[in-house]
Amino acid sequence: MYLAGAIAVVLAIHVSGGVSGGHLNPAYSLSMCLLGRFPWWKLPLYTLIQLVGSFAGAAAAFALYYDAIQDYTKGNLTIFGPRETASIFCSYPAPYLSIANGFLDQVMGTAMLLVGILAIVDSKNKPVPQGLEPIVVGMLVFSIGLSMGANCSYPINPTRDLGPRLFSAVAGWGLDVFRAGNNWWWVPVVAPCVGAVLGAILYQIFVEIHHPLAKDEEESPKEKEAQRGDMKEAQVFSISLDNPLSHRL
After folding, report:
1. Is the pLDDT assigned to residue 57 strictly greater than 50?
2. Where would you find the membrane-spanning parts of this chain (predicted)?
3. Where are the domains of the chain?
């Protein structure tokens, strides 16, 4: 399951990378807005499209495995019990998991995701070769799933969890998909956004601000303006020397 999800991320980034920059996660899009790398006005539109895409993906999976689900459940679509099938579509906490611990789980997982992505695409750090970014991001998602998926199946993406949850609510599982797990549904929506912002801040503090600046970035605007003025004076002086009248003088 974790491997299939990681491969899906790789393919999704390859498909959408040239159109949207590979924005599959509103938590990631939010952090890019805060870093000034993505316009704020696009955030609501991207989030809506990501939600619609997640809903459509859940609908496609339901259609593909409809007969299997009906055979397994005998037509009784449940959220709890040995034959529950709601977790096919979205996350639910383990019986032992509290809301607070689940929130922390999602904050940490998404923070790790953002730190990893920012490192992968940071040209001043040790970026991966161009074209391999989707594969390495997929490996990152796979590792987060393996190491942190036991508590609540590592949603780390608000729309990836909310879209399928909305679909399962209308497809037969009912509104209990929002009540289950002590009203768990809001945790994978809010916590990844908090984690993404935290991850972006941590990368800025511990890595990005320590990059050596390029020579032109080290100079202040006044110094650059003064240099441009000196260059203009030098050009004028050079022209005057090349003027035949100057030799006569």
Report:
1. yes
2. 45-65, 103-123, 135-156, 184-206
3. 2-212, 215-249
